[in-house]
C-alpha cells in the first residue's frame, strides 16, 4: 500500500508541475486543531470587519472531511503571479495590487485544478474530490503550511523560501490516501519589517492581522464609505495593497511568473493618474473584463480613487 501511495503522490506532483504550478504539497485531511482557537478569537475580536462570510461554516473551515466525504488528503498548489514589470508607481501614480493585474486567478487555477483532477481519474481511477480556489470555507494557508510548501509569516501571508509570497493558492481535497509532506520551519526570525511598514497598523502583533484595518479590506471588502480616520494613510493604493509583501526580505527571491493570463491588459499597462480619475464604464468593462478588480464595480473603484486623491 505504501509503495502505491508514494507512486500516486509522485504522479500527481509531476502532473502539477506539467500544468505550470510552482509548488505542490500534500497534507493528511484532518481537523485543524492549532488553527481552531486562533480563528475563533480572531472572529470574536471582530477582526473580520464586515466580511460576515468568514464567520459562516466554522466547522467546515477546520475540517475538510465535512467538505468532501471520506476525505483523506489535501493537495495544495502554488501559482506565482509576480509580474515581470510593475505598473507605474512613480510619485503620485495610483496603485493596484499585483495579484489583480491580469485575469482573475479563480478562473486560471480552477481550470488547472480541473485538469489535475481529470488526470487523477484517468491514471488512478475513481477518486472522489473537489477543487477549491478561495471559493469555499478552506483555510488555504494552513493547508499549505501543513503540506510543507511554505510557512505563515508575521503578516499572515504564506512565504515560500524559493519564490517569496506573491503566489495564489489552490487545493484538491480527495478521498485518496497519499504520502503527506511535513511542515517546514518558520524563517521570519526577528524581522518585523511588515509590521513596521503597515500604514494603517493592521498587523496588530506578529501573526495577527486585524482584517478590518487592512487597506485591502477598505478598498475591496468594505461596501460603505471609507472611515475618515484612515484618510492619507493609503499610500495611493486603490485596489488591494502589497506593502507588507513588498518590504518582506523573502521577496527578493520573487521571480516573474510564466502565466500569460496574469499579464496586465495592454491599456492598463499605460494607465496614468488621469486615466484612473477619468475612467468610464466602457473602459472599466473592457480593461477589467476578466479581472478581480470587477469585485469593486466602477462605483467602488471611483470611491477609492476619490478617497486617495482627497475627493
Automatic annotation (TrEMBL):
Binds 2 [4Fe-4S] clusters per monomer. PROSITE patterns: 4FE4S_FER_1, 4FE4S_FER_2. [4Fe-4S] cluster 2 binds at residues 198, 214, 241, 244. Its EC number is 1.17.99.6. Pathway: tRNA modification; tRNA-queuosine biosynthesis. It comes from the Bacteria. The active site is at 134 (proton donor). Coiled coil: none annotated. This is Epoxyqueuosine reductase. The gene is queG.
